[in-house]
Amino acid sequence: MTHFRKIMLEELQLRNYAQNTIRHYLRAVEDFARHFKCSPDRLGPRHIREYQAELFQKRKLSPNSVGQHLAALRFFYIKTLRRAWSVADTPYPKKTHHLPTILSREEVAQLLHAARTPGERILLMTLYASGARNAELTHWKVSDIDRPRMVLHIRGGKGRKDRDVMLSPKLRAARRAHWRYYHRPSSTWLFPSNYRKDRPIDTKTVWYACQKAAPRAGLPKRVYPHLLRHCFATHLYEAGADLRAMQVLLGHEDLKDTLLYLHLAIQRLHSTASPLDSLTLDDKPPDEN
Question: Among the options 149, 226, 244, 263, which is catalytic?
Fold first, then answer.
């Protein structure tokens, strides 16, 4: 794989793919080759179909995950090997769409209070206050704080796009108090690693903070960093935020991605009356008319 890996890496970098995507694509092609114990340039559509069945039936991957593996293989065959790719021979699985389980405002407050340490509480507060993705939060720099405008700059978010999100006064006060109390040394990073001050914390640290706080808060729901982003958007919409403004804050390229929160906003759903309630009906049973 060394020769083809090098070429594929160069093709991905030339197209300015995100680092996470590059990592995933390379691993997917390596796994494909490892499965057949053969160099991937000697494998074809029949092997891809067999591999796709393996991912579904034995590894029990979701359709979305299988689609990501196929996207990596498609890139490898078209861009690296310069071969044709037939969608008819290797169809993409139909995606499934599940609504995430959302925490109520009260449950978010419980989660924040249950954080193991003040530092982990600040991490969870930042996720909920900004709607940032986990990777975006861990790469925030102190210079990204715009105090006069009360915004946080997100540099090179998903899709290599920059955007601004609000800086919550409550979050700013909590963070300043935390840093003063613990006498944190100055750092380039807003959340520096405890082991290397010249590096930011790892995304796993944020995952760990969520997983430890949820049972301490007595929450039976599965809590993960991206869930707090969903909570941020849902609670904004319930409070009357404009969908277009939410699209900008969340960094969605397409408004249809933001429309997810129409389904999640319970308060607005409850305040929307059924058309049946607007009808004037005779309440007597049919046999009494």
Answer: 226
